[in-house]
Amino acid sequence: MHPYLFELASLMAIFSFAIISPGADLAMVMRQSIVNGRRAAIITSFGVGTALMVHVTYTILGLGLVISQSIYLFNIVKWCGVAYLIYIGVKALRAGKTDVSAAAQEGIEQAQVSQSALKAFGLGFAANALNPKAVFFFLSIFSTVVHAHTPIPVKFGYGLVMASCLILWFVGVSLFMTTPRMRAAFSRASQWIDRLSGVVFIGLGLKLANEKAGG
pTM here? Predict the structure, then answer.
């Protein structure tokens, strides 16, 4: 096997577990699917994947090491992430009941246009980009798996493959969560789902608040 293919396979073997693990990205895409529909959730998925390339870029350029070693820089990223997660958590807790029954699908699709593509993309981008844990994740796997002499364009290629897989995973989640049967089920419990997702986001924010640089 070509060494670059071996590196990519090794990266993806590790990254596959990170993709499916519960976290702010998954919570955001699921809530978008339930509250704002398939279109918004898919666009949010692309926002998450694009933010991943930001992490890959600064890791390759060496900025990830600087951030991980600087308490000041780490805390800037951390507290921005904490504020964002708690903000969207509070918004979810304050949301009212959402009628997303399958029988009203046509009206729903029209209502869903109210969330702009830019806002949907930004929600996914911010959820991933403001997660300082990604600094350590990408720094650790790239420094462990990828050889120092691997060309930078190849490293960016690895990142593009990882971002594409992340987008495909969340698009799949978006499609599954917006099937008529799932929409009908979630319509009946939409307010409780909003409350639960709000608690999850706030919990993730508080958990992030306790993270320490290098930890």
Answer: 0.72
